[in-house]
Amino acid sequence: MIRDDAVKAGMSVSDQGAVAFDTAQLTQAERAAYVHDPDFQQTARTQANAWAEKLVQAVKAVTDADDGIRVALDAVVLDSDPMDGTFNGFNRSPQAGPYPSLEEAGKAANMPRDRKDIPAWWRSLAPVTRGILLQERGDELRAAGIMDPQYQWHSADPGSGPFNVENPTPRDVEFHALALGLAMVGDITGETGASRNMLHYLRGTGETLDVDVNRMLHDDAKFRSDIEEIHIERNQEE
Prior knowledge:
The chain is an all-alpha fold. It is built from 10 helices and 2 strands. The chain has 3 domains: 1-81 and 97-103; 111-149, no CATH class; 170-235, no CATH class. It has a two-stranded antiparallel sheet. A hairpin with a 5-residue loop joins strand 1 and strand 2 (19-21). The longest helix is centred in the N-terminal third of the chain and has 39 residues, at 38-76. The protein is elongated.
């Protein structure tokens, strides 16, 4: 029995099936090592969990087999000939069940109610059982989630960060402080257009900035004269 094997492996199993590492089986030296060694304790917990899962699966197999027997008996006692003069009579010509075993019949009859458990249940069925169920209840099973994806992608590591981004160097910090200083000076000296442009650049929002050409012409005398001499005078006739 699985329970006896678990006890031989150093586990204790309660009447309710709870499994724990049995420190009573340890020698005094082993018990002292267990108390002071976290790795020993973790290994013991891992082993206990493994044996607990084996017990759960063993109980489930027995339950499925019992349910398979119930399903088979229900089929056998159905009245196969309602015209023989008996009501609810015994099935004198029972047909062999389509499932490969009573356990498979029980598993087929016990589809989990929780959707997250459906795919694992489906994978545990024999191919023949799946084929029978798909033929008889295909739409119901697909709607219940037998085809739900089981793999969820997770990044293996944090990665290198956003594309084309580097940590600032001391030179970058110095340049940033200089640019902020220029923007402040622009506000003080009346070069508000230049200050506005510089601050927009430093914010790095990627949003479009509408340039005020009239303010540029007002603030920058050389720009204003170049426009007048190079563009307006040469092209005013056209």
